[in-house]
Request: fold
Amino acid sequence: MQKLEKHISSKPDSALVYLIKAVQSLGIAFSLAKSEIKGKKARMRLGYMLSLVQILIGTSLYWLIFGIIIKVDTNGVFYPLFLLPGIISWQYFSNLVGDAGVSIETNQWIINKIYFPRVLFPLSKIIPGLVDMLIAFVILLIGVIVLKYPIGIQILLVPAFILIIILSGFSIGAWIASISIKYKDFSRLIPHLMNFGFFLTPIFYPATIIPENLSFILYINPIAFAVEGLRYSFLGTNIPDIKYLFSLIPIFIFLVWGWSNIRKKEKFYADNI
Reply:
């Protein structure tokens, strides 16, 4: 890890200066991510297979309950394929929010040793789960090909929807990280908030079953946008409603809010960890 200055000014950097410092120190984020990936491989013999096993178990369970027993209408789409875009997206998103949300708190051993922009802690959490998600989407694509679903030009939109998932997880995770040092118990709420959000996202049910007067719940949910978009991209379902673009607003708000909080509290983290 490169040598870094230990001094932390009592006056926060301007937004531009802080951004420049963060960009210049991106190598630190990659080093932190690389270290975490190595640690995971050392702790888990299954490695990347564990995430795929979790996805397959979740898919099988929801297929049994909602596909076979309740018989949720997916407009002719094979239910496991209908499920996978949502389960893959949500697993990555929830893990990113959880890991990024406690990233500053759990790296206290390094906070007082060397200085670099603390926003790199939540930023470093993007990479470790990304490989798992991409492998899972490749498996989904293989399933689409094997079951002979037509693949159209909309498949090229997949990276855009993956980016929405990444930005959603990072922005919310960074915001949680920015307040979790002062309000230490807040991070314990993350699993409960994730469970609540899971049921508000059209993962095991189609968005069309949501009543019109409650549709705003979907249109402010960026993961709902990503899931519907991925279904459209892989399976040729209906194109997401243009109102889903409103879901990009919460991403921007949490991104600016979290980034700004971390920038302004650099000294606070050093003094209170």
